[in-house]
Amino acid sequence: MQKFRRNALLVTVFALLAFVMVFSSLLVSGTPSAIAIDETRVVGSRATATASPVPEEPYLFINIYALNLRTGPGVEYAIIAVLEGGDAYEVLGQSPDAIWFLIDTEFGVGWVRGKYTLFRGELEDVPLVLPDEETELYGDLQGGLFFLHIFQPVYDEPNGERLGYLPGRYDYPVVGRTLSGAWLLLLSDEFGLVWIPASAGSFRGYFFNIPVIFPPYK
């Protein structure tokens, strides 16, 4: 009887050991499969990543945080839009002094200063673009605005008769100036054309595009 019990106990122990060994082998063999699946997925996602397309040469990159796109090759021309750094654009032409590039953008055709870009291609292949009324590749000049911070008196001519006051916190178009630049001619809804000292507010734009008005001012 004791021998039978001993044999039964040995059978139970061997069966338990066999179960533990089989279960352990399943766990060990399952782990690499899970890792292999994850690595395949990661590697696959990297393989499908593609770089952003760039235009055919010649083209340029904006090599500054932001760059003005203008209607012509010069700071005296109006601003069309502001381009973000790192973007690439096709080059259509260059200014006669080789300082400005004519490029094609989502805002239309415009000019950028070459020193703030990285050019790719052969510069000799880029055609010169001259002023031409038919092509309109030289656009509007940049005007000027005058911002009044507070109410300010305005006059019928420099150092002339006071017409009244213009409200502050507004921009007024600048349509003329004295030769010295000390007085500006503004267009207002309240009084029409009025003169105001340049020190009364803040000018924005390209000052030398503002036409000079000579006396008599009336």
Short description:
With 218 residues, the chain is α+β, with helices and mostly antiparallel strands. The protein has one helix at residues 2-48, and strands at residues 59-62, 66-70, 79-84, 88-94, 100-105, 108-113, 117-120, 144-148, 152-155, 162-166, 170-177, 183-188, 192-197, 202-205. The chain has three domains: 1-50; 59-125, SH3 type barrels; 144-209, Roll (SH3 type barrels).
Record the SSE blueprint:
Elements: H1 2-48, E1 59-62, E2 66-70, E3 79-84, E4 88-94, E5 100-105, E6 108-113, E7 117-120, E8 144-148, E9 152-155, E10 162-166, E11 170-177, E12 183-188, E13 192-197, E14 202-205
Antiparallel strand pairs: 1-4, 1-7, 2-3, 4-5, 5-6, 8-11, 8-14, 9-10, 11-12, 12-13
- CATH 2nd-level architecture of the largest domain: Roll
- Counted beta strands: 14
- Count of the separate structural domains: 3
The radius of gyration is: 38 Å
Q: What share of residues are in beta strands?
A: 25-35%
Q: N-to-C terminal Cα separation, in Å?
A: 136 Å
Major pleated sheet? 5 strands, antiparallel
- Please trace the helix and strand order, writing H or E for each element: HEEEEEEEEEEEEEE
CATH homology superfamily of the largest domain: SH3 Domains
Mean pLDDT: 81
Q: How do the strands of the widest beta sheet line up side by side? A: 6-5-4-1-7
Level of helix content?
10-25%
CATH-defined topology of the largest domain: SH3 type barrels
Counting DSSP H or I runs of 4 or more residues, the number of helices is 1
* Mass-distribution shape: elongated
Structural class: alpha+beta
